[in-house]
Amino acid sequence: MSAVKTLQAEQSISITIPQETIDSIKEEGHRAAAIGLFLLAPFIGLLYAMALPFVGMGMIAYLGAQAFIKTDGWTKTKAVVLNIALKMKGIVLFIAAPFIGLAYAVALPFLGLGMMAWVGRKALFGKPQKD
Predict the structure, then answer these.
(1) How far from 129 is each of 61, 115, 118, CA to CA, in Å?
(2) pLDDT tens across 104-122, in order?
(3) Is the pTM above the cut of 0.70?
């Protein structure tokens, strides 16, 4: 149900919009979407082309892991894999630490500004505190 029909049904308002106007609005919206997709299509294709090798390697690793788990080799090497995984956790965190720190350094000033704006808004427009 269109918005006009909903308004007419709920509010008992009679609005008359010529059909030519509705058709031109629909056509303009379709034309704008088509132009937008036309301009974005190369970038969407580039994104798919860039992601394809990573997605393919991930699928190969996933399918290989699923096949390995179904064999007897998994039960024999489970303890070794868990031991390696625990050691790798520290190594991965050591490698990721600078990037995590950079993310904090970039994000925290914006979070601080947001908190100051929130406290300021509360001070200006909020209820006064009772002593």
Answers:
(1) 59, 19, 16
(2) 999 999 999 999 999 998 8
(3) no
